[in-house]
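User: I'm curious what two different proteins look like when written out as structure tokens. Can you demonstrate?

Assistant: Sure. I'll show them one after the other, since each token string lines up with its own sequence. Here's the first protein:
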Amino acid sequence: MASVDPKYAEGIDEAIALDHVTAEEYEVILKELGRAPNIVELGIFSVMWSEHCSYKSSRLHLGKFPTTGERVVYGPGENAGVVDIGDNQVAIFKMESHNHPSYIEPYQGAATGVGGILRDVFTMGARPIALMNALRFGDPSHPKTRQLVSGVVAGIGGYGNCVGVPTVGGETNFDKGYNGNILVNAMAVGLADRDKVFTAAAREIGYPVLYVGSKTGRDGIHGATMASAEFGEGSEENRPTVQVGDPFTEKKLIEACLELMSEDAISSIQDMGAAGLTSSSVEMASSGGVGIELNLDHVPQRETAMTAYEMMLSESQERMLMILKPGSEHIAERIFKKWDLDVATIGVTTDTKRLVLKHKGEVVCDLPLDPIGDKAPKYDRPHLPSEVRANIDPNRLKAPAHLGEALYTLMTSPDMASKRWIWEQYDRHVMADTVASSQNPADAAIVRIHKSDKALAITTDCTPRYCYADPYEGGKQAVAEAWRNLTAVGAEPIAITDCLNFGNPERPEIMGQFVGCIEGMAEACRTLNFPVVSGNVSLYNETDGQAIPPTPAVGAVGLIEQLDQRATYGGLEAGDVLLIIGETHGHLGASLYMRHVEGDEDGSAPPVDLAVEKRNGDFVRAEIKAGRAKIVHDLSDGGLACGVADMALANMIGIKLAYNGDLPVFAWLFGEDQARYLIAAKPAIAEDIRRNAKAAGVPVDVLGLAGGDAITINGGHGLDLIRLKTGHDGWLPALMAGEAAAAE
């Protein structure tokens, strides 16, 4: 290693270890600077070169995603993705992780995850209209699970409810693979006028730099580097790196920012997220090709004697950085003081392409911007493809003695049991535009575009067990299911955001999972015309060498042009005919039936034929738009049987199924074949749908009739709905009450 300037020698070795700068990376820093960095400069390199900020292990592969499309206004590279929804309006959305902080400090970790994703959206000029989340917890019997569920759910509800943005849906899974690393992925969606979208790039010289929002404290220092390392013994000591959120301040910040955005004052704007003041200043200047000079003496501080290092690396919440047009400072000061928020001019843009920091009359940092940003490490990590699993032949399995009891087992399992206990803690209807949410039986949340007949449909999806069995097919399925869920409510799928959660990328088998999932997702996005417009990568979700299952969560947005042209799976009535769209081959590999009935996690993931997905989905969407298909449910986890049970429970009406095909009846019921939808309609309309499907070359079959108070198969194997509802609704409350039976 090159020699270190004696002035800064004290504590350098400790700083390198703390900041996760490798010896090789440090050598690059020395070469770029021609000297040793001081502690402040090293801290800046460490956070900007962290996995969390630089994407150094993933950038090479993220370029495989399609990112453009007819409706895409801004794709990856901005704070959030922006898509055109007509009438000079855009939807702005993004999904991000807050995994490590939520494991260490569940309430604040989850709460600040919500706050951070909201800032990504409103920093671009959008008013947030909806929140979603995708949560993964460990085995229900694990000693930490109940505490983590309780804290995370309280944090999401506590922040979202107070800030006044509805949490309209999401997904929650339990799996032993998350025992050491839970996943908390948050998604936000906002609306803006297309001609009033704000970006982060600072392109003008001599413009004032303003700090607005809350004061800077010592919370969250090294949050980005903590999120870029796996856990091990002593991880609880990272608690001080978790930020502390204040939703009431966030609400004021939203309103103040949107008010200032209505003035002709802002040149560019960026929230202070991971790496705080460092990332916001560096990214704004480097993306615009300018330099930036900050006087840290002017940074509002809530603690005494803060060092330059602490101010630059703090991740205190509810803060923004703005570049204003000269002479507009008084407008910002008036607005932010009215909202009782801090506002201070702390710097200026320059023509140097350097980051210069002053503190107490001294220059404490003078760095070229290119090495911090564009020249951050970019690794081509070795990757091994996952082992291909054999499919499961259902004819080799013994049929369950009672099909109704097998269905009861699945519907009362951690995977399929109702998550009502969770979503009842979220305000789902604030702002009064929520049409369908967790409470209402639809495959995607539906949020009305205020004062219009249009709506956005929003979903989050991923099946980690598929991704573990076959990363490529699992990646395809995650995108296809999101597309299918939007289709099932009648929405035109527009674009996706993603949150790619994986273990340690330095292990070739983990990197193989990552590459496989991305390549599968990319193929699905191309075929379905479903581009990626924003996203996040969360690596090192691993404890003591035990990685999480590969979990590439997909958040997706679609457009419903007319609210009366939508579908749910409510409204079922006795005498309705049930149809299935798509072919059933009884695929049981990696299925919930194998997990909960056979006690076996083996088998291949179901193959995803993207051409078939598109054909079947386009047909279903057309039938919804024509008003014929009003009761629609996509089929996924648990197959046909669990889809039927969902519909029956949503309406408390029994369903009589009939089957006389060649497959073993349990494979027909529980196989998780893709590209399938369940439709219910009055007999005459059902016949019209059948006729149209056959004309379009879309497979369709009659499943049975609605009626009675039980689910039956070929006249037997009855499962009483009241009993099913009691078990389905009761599992999670029993778990959270500490009842042992729920955890078994």
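Here's a second, unrelated protein for contrast:
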Amino acid sequence: MSRDLVRPRAVGPLWAACAAAIALAVLTPLAALAWTALGAGAAHWSHLIEHVLPGALARTATLLGGVGLLTAVVGTGCAWLVTRADFPGRRVLQWALLLPLTVPTYIAAYSYVDLLHPIGPFQGALRALLGFDSPRQFRLPDARSMGGAVLVLSAVLYPYVYLSMRAMFSTQPARLMEAARLLGEGPWGAFRRVALPMARPALAVGVGLVLLEVLNDVGASEFLGVTTLTTTIYTTWVTRSDLGAAAQIACAMLALVAVLVMLERQGRCRQRAGAVRAMRPAPRQRLHGARAWLATAAAALPVVIGFVLPAGHLATLAWKRVVEGYGLTPEVIAGATHSALLALSVTAIAVTAGLVVAWAARSTAGARTRAWWLGGAALGYAIPGTVLAIGLLPPALALDAWIAGALGLPGLPMMSLGVVLVAAGVMRFLALPIGGVEAGLSRIPAPLEQVARSLGESPLGTLRRVHLPLLRPALTTSALLVFIDVMKELPASLLLRPANVETLPTLLYAEAARGSYEHGALAALLIVAVGLPAVLLLSREPASPASPAPNADTPRARRTPQVSRAPQAACASEARGGPEAPRAVSATRVSDASSTPFIPTKEAT
């Protein structure tokens, strides 16, 4: 069959215009941000460069370096343990190590500040054990410090590294490790000189996602007393009402984001590997005695610190509130309702827009046009929510004023109805459905589309009758991930929510700011519970790479159930930046992924 028959039919001008409009809409806040920063004047720049940016940049770099290093060590170590060793509790711990993903960084910070307070439960029990009577006699270092911020953020963000490294380690062939051992390398030498260099792309992806999450954080850094670039932007805008200076700081932060993306891409682009289509996975080593229980304790410690302690503390506080008669208060019910409405709105729009962009990009013949649509539309994932809100506000206010004048409406209707907040959420998380749909489309055999064409179907009819039924698992998974992320989103909600409207994250933030964190414990527990489905989705161990991946030429790949299951597994990895990507590239060259952008639209590892 000729190559022309395999190539997807070009989309019409309406599809192309919609995809270009979506990509342009995501890029609009960046252009508005630069315009606002330039309009603030040179005096602001000189003041920021002299008094604000050096300290904020230094603290941000220190926080990024500490969290990046610690998450790399913890995530890599845990991934190596569960993939290459067999010890008591391994089957449970391999998915339990993902549980900290359900705890947002700001909730972990609030919980640990409360737990480690000088008169809190942990230090109180420790003083009683040591025979001290008061905090004046014995107290631990303050959790509100740079060290505390590094530990707390690392405790809940290491699963990004763990997911990527677990998938990569599980697909490395046994023959390479065996060759290293035959050449005289011990277990540590084989890991350091063979397994770890091969897994460098996955490590770069995981650490890159961790650093972007740190940059996006507002609540944890502010509550732990670390003034980063993000918290500086927030305080400059909200406290000092200086949008121009906030935009200038946001531009400096965008430069830092660009550096992180470039470093991450360099980490992957230098990696080259041969074909790994059919290989025998490395067997797990059975541990016995003290070594086995030591491995169990080492793998369980991150789960305890990142999930068990903060979630248990939240459950205790929430139970006390329920016993006291302050369970589901009207404020909590209203916050949950607003969060659910916001998440549903963003999810519906983002999944639809992601489908449009991915379908249009798949059907276009121009590589540059395809890269422009995919890269532009997915760029919001790399932009911190605070920066996106700063850039979105000027064009949104201008459009809002025009609509109010044209329709004769008072005030700012789009801001009041939450339209701007929904738009920010769609721009922020559009990369998730784009990556999921693109991965699903790449796994649908070409003969199915060829048959539809031969029967006279148009591109829209082919999408509706052939691709959409097979994409249902990918679309469902993407929708779930977007919904959960929006429910946890704090920075954009703080800055763009309508007046007198609280979501669960903003309600918790307000209670913590007032020093009454226990009053928001039930709201925090609801946020943690919402994230559990994502953990169950991502917890599946990667399939064994011993058998080759099916392709369009094998009879098995032509079975509709087999095809329909593939996008579901791929979407979880694509939407989160590639933690399960080695499963998808087992029949290709790992080096093929080196040309993909950091935004999760391709197999990142």
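A detail about the second structure: The chain has 28 helices and two strands.
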